[in-house]
Amino acid sequence: MTKGKKNKAVAAKTNGSNKSCAEAIAPCLLTPPGTPPINGFKIFNKNYGNGTNRSPTVAWEREFIGLFLLEMGDSQEISARNDWYVDKMKMRRLFEVHLGKCSNYVELRIKLSANGPCNIGSLMQRTNFLRNTPRGSTNYQIKNFALMEFRREKFNAIDEMRRLPDQITFIEPGANVEGSLEGKLIEQYVLDTEAAAMPLMYQKTQVLPSTNFELNSMGCYICEHHFESIEKYEEHVEHHGDESDFKSLERMTKFSEPMVTLSYQTCVDSHYFGFTLKTDLKDVVLQKFIIVQSRQFYYVYNGRMPVTMPESGEKVFFVDSQVFTILREMPIVIGFTSKGQRYVEQHHFMRTTALPKAMFNINSYRLSSKEIFRGKGLSRANPPTQVVHALKHNDAQQRLVEYDKHYRNYCEQGRALTQGNIGGALRTLLQVEDIERLQHYLGLKQSKVELHQFGRELSVKMQLPSANNGSVEDILSPGDDVLIINERVLHGSPDGIRKLLENSNLVLELALKDFDSIIKWARSLEEKMGSLMKQPRVYFARILGVSTQRVHITCERQLADNTTYTLIFRPVRAVMRYQYRALEQLGWTNSQHVQRILFPEEIPRKPVAIGALKLHNQLISRNPEQMQAVQQIALCPKLPAPYIVVGPPGTGKTATICEAIYQLFVCRPETHILVLAGSNTACDEIALRLLRAIAKAPETQPRPLTRIFSACCDRRIDNIDDLLLEYSNLYAVHFYPAVQAVHQYRIVVCTLSLAGKLSTGGFALDDGERPVFSHVFIDEAAASTEAECLMGITCTISSTTNLILSGDHKQLGPILQSHRANEWGLSESLYERLLQRKCYQVDAEGAYNAGVQTRLIRNYRSHPEIVSLYSDLYYNGELKAEAPIENVSLVKSWFHTTNEDFPIMFHSVFGTVMNTKWSVSLCNNKEIDAVMDYVKDLMYFGINGKPVAQTDIGIISPYKNQYQRIQEQLNMRNWSQIDCGSVELFQGKEKQIIIVSFVRSFTPKLGFLDNQRRLNVLLSRPMSLLIMIGNPRTLSQNHDFRRIIELCRARRTLVGVPYFLDETGSKVVNGAASGEAGESEMVKRESVGHTQIRTSPKNDTKDNARSELDKLFDELPKVPRYVDPSSDAVRSVTAQMMKLQVDKKTKVVAKLTENGPAKSNSVPLKPTPQTTASAKILTTAARAATAQTSTPLSIPTSSNRAHHYINYKPTAPEMTPPRTSTNGRGSTVYSHVPTGSTRFEDLRAPSEQYSYSNQHRGPTEYTHIPTGSARFEDFRASFEQHSYRNQPHFSTNHSNNGRRPEEPKPQKKKSTCTIS
Fold this sequence. Notes:
Elements: H1 3-16, H2 21-24, H3 27-30, E1 42-43, E2 46-47, E3 53-54, E4 57-58, H4 59-74, E5 85-87, H5 88-100, H6 105-114, H7 120-126, E6 139-141, H8 144-163, E7 169-170, E8 186-187, E9 198-199, E10 201-208, E11 219-220, E12 225-226, H9 230-240, E13 261-266, E14 272-278, E15 284-292, E16 297-299, E17 307-308, E18 314-320, E19 330-338, E20 341-349, H10 385-390, H11 396-403, H12 405-412, H13 422-442, E21 446-449, E22 453-454, E23 457-461, H14 472-475, E24 481-486, H15 496-500, H16 504-512, H17 515-529, E25 538-546, E26 550-555, E27 565-570, H18 574-588, H19 591-598, H20 624-635, E28 643-646, H21 653-667, E29 673-677, H22 680-694, E30 705-707, H23 722-726, H24 739-742, E31 747-751, H25 752-759, E32 775-779, H26 786-793, E33 802-807, E34 815-816, H27 819-826, H28 830-835, E35 853-855, E36 858-859, H29 864-874, E37 880-881, E38 904-908, E39 913-914, E40 923-924, H30 925-941, E41 953-956, H31 960-972, E42 979-981, H32 983-986, E43 991-997, H33 1012-1019, E44 1022-1030, H34 1032-1035, H35 1039-1050, E45 1054-1056, ...
Parallel strand pairs: 7-8, 28-33, 28-35, 29-31, 29-32, 30-31, 32-33, 36-37, 38-44, 38-45, 41-42, 41-43, 43-44
Antiparallel strand pairs: 1-4, 2-3, 5-6, 9-13, 10-20, 11-12, 13-14, 14-18, 15-16, 15-17, 15-19, 19-20, 21-27, 22-23, 23-26, 24-25, 24-27, 25-26, 34-51, 39-40, 46-47, 47-48, 49-50
């Protein structure tokens, strides 16, 4: 077992099972003091987050009552589902029971009585946990926002202790544990003496002035400065980090020798690093040990500083390796004093390797490493110059049609592949992808670069042209090649080489040349520019990792100093070349075999094969669709066409495939099985399931299965299961086995690209050139292009080959870098194309040919409501939820669950999107806060007191900048087992709880959020709970998001900042109308200091009591913010409106139409935009009174109504990343996915699109018509005066889905909304 795995095992025991930190770390935070203070501590002049005044409270009383209420919440005695009402008699009885459990019951009773009545009602009133209820009511109503605030105080206090590294006591090796240390959490770290000590690179030193600077949580010790906002703090941290190229070093001085030295080593059986600090100076006192992360400073041993250096001048600091980012140059700053003078000294650390790998004993079933793979060569397959030149023109497709006859036929057929054009058409499309991918790489060429090596490794700060809107991370990948060209010139112009390499055609040629050709070119260059003697002109290097603006490279040769270099990045074209080879092989293959496998004709329907099967997974016998697939695959001697398993999310697609393979292995020993997939994750999952099933098989074989890994998997060895490693080519040092050794195994599992590589060495053919494999399975076939699938098909295709494809074409599709190749059809998968063939069609009754396909419809993953959501959106409501309800109801009685029967929550957050200067990826700090509040609540309090495992939680964000920031927060708390990443990372995974941050807020477009396939994957990951966090107004631009948000509103799970509907049915966000009310009327419910309107199945009969004048005013437009409320025009128009006397609505309309213009003309108006807008109010009112006020859900553009966008500040250019997930032809990013149903199309008219260009971008301060009724007041002013960051994120409008305790009907009040 690797050291990383041992650490994970320890983490699983301590954190994974998650003994609540409430129990393990800080019991004092969750229990009241034994004896309350005599006088108590009173809190004065405090307000709740919503602005409500809090009366003075006694601190210990508030603590005691708050903890009692939290206990009642965990036991569901009080909850959101009954609107926080609780029967008075029951509450009094429970409180007495709670008091009776206290050891100091008598003394506590006396203390409670000293401050007034000690009944629970009075105590809750005194501690501000009780709402005022009508006299005579039989119920108490808890102030939910006060209780939420108290709950957050508790888990933030625990969190603060969790984040402090000083909570763990370190002891020296061999020391005895005694005294006060007994029973505490103690960890002992021992430096690995066999590991080499790696020195850190000294940078510079700075002398600090003698000041009394007191550091706070948003301050910089190095610069001695505090920041007022988190945004400015993070921007300053970047000033110290690699994203700014370490600009802070400009203020420092480089000494000839550092004052202190730093080196690090690994520790024995631990993931900690030991940093050894040495100095020859005397009287040194260490003040700070600072690690500069990407967006914050990490202070090591902060609670123990300052520390006096021992006499030996050497001290070791143990630091969790999770603090660092692999392949990222990170500053470590040491603050210290010597002889009264303060210094800070900066050293740089870069972690380039993982922890030591596992070593196992040799077993007989391992792949033999005595003979290794030897390929028979692979042609360069460079794209022809005709295609290169064609792509430089706007009419590129027409030129390609003229160049290639097969591509012409493909276009004439309506971009349809046929047996005659498939080879040529796919080859041309591949060449387009190949060339445009190369152009993305060559656009990153760097010139005049100074390079500094860390041993073999070096870090390059990328300088991108301003016109380049892409991201380095979207283009470069680990393993890509780098040509490092020395720019030194001995003869001619000093910048001769740079000018030579400005020729784009030459650079393209270099990118396509092989090693020998580049050496020849370098020699010819030296003849012109002069020889560098012992130094080579061109160095060959490889990319280790890519960060936001840095590329980390390894080079075997030592680079020359005092010179500059040009860097040319080249993609590894091996996979592309394997695809070219597969297309070439396709031309040699028997046409009948090609027709049966790739172009099956109509096949007569026959009964599914029948036979006796002894199932490993007995649950499959209860699922007729799964059983049908297993029987047909395992028992049919020869499949008439490729067998397709259509597997929507959670329907057991992988279980079906694994059971079919297992039955072939057990029941048909003559079979030989090849399992392929586009991703390593899918291959690992299938191989691991099969190994566990085969271990229980009645008869075992010496070589049942092998998993072949590519060389790049060596970097992720710590994340690979030990059992899988044993049956792979990665059990020790990675090697590629000889194909003859691979053929000895019954089941071979590898990726499609690796099958393409092995095919160059005779893979899948025996010594007699006969096919080896009888069955070929391709999992996730819908996520791979047809050319990629052909890498695994062309080497195995024969008259006896059985091909089985599984996947879901409504989830994420292939990933391409070329916009045009995507649009022109390369992104269509073989899986999706075959489903369009006649033999796979489904008739009107839902029947299909079971001999060539099965369509799984029974979901065993998720809660029925979650299944219903994405089934209705994307699968025509065909999916059936059959997961045992007890397995998917983990959070049914969670404290924050507002509807126990609907585990889908939308948390409304109106944040601001940001991006760095060096990345177009977006982030949203308010959504990060909301995400972390949910995670901390789950991890510290659990669900009803039961701990939640880290592995039960998954966090998804579509933007890398966002999920990286969230991951940093998780790493600070050692929550390494909580998965956090993009939608692509989660495809194929499932979690009990999924939390999603959508990031985009007040942006005119949704980018790749506007993508059905991505949303489908996201919605189908959770088992028990889905929490979506985002700006509902922005997301409502998309029909599917709008439908989800309105569904949450109807089911009372729309929580957070108010996003509500006005009484005319238009969507209102803090006063701005946008859209339709929905299917039901609205009722007002108080929530966390504001009045939020939610949908309700009941009709509001009280609305009829409102005057006709009130209703008319509702239809009038809001006054635009740019109108001066003190102007004569506005005063005059307002006065006229208030004097209107109405008997009937029709008379009002007539009167406004007749008299409005005349009265408007009598007002002295200046010819300004402001007065012009004001003068139009009356005519607009007349139109509003006669027009329909309810329209389909839509996003209105600017009109006479004032639509204002809160704090809209565009912070990022349009997202046009080269690498995108393509979803069939024409995804929402590059192309359009044909759905065949307008139900999924965007039905908005062009005029209904968002238009931000004319919006005023100042602070939102609305004027309003003084009506004498708060109902007409603008709700947004007070809303925007508050900082969202100070809001309680759990400020939810919790409503009762069922019956609540009897409560007198509230009187209709004026709506005075103060939003927290």
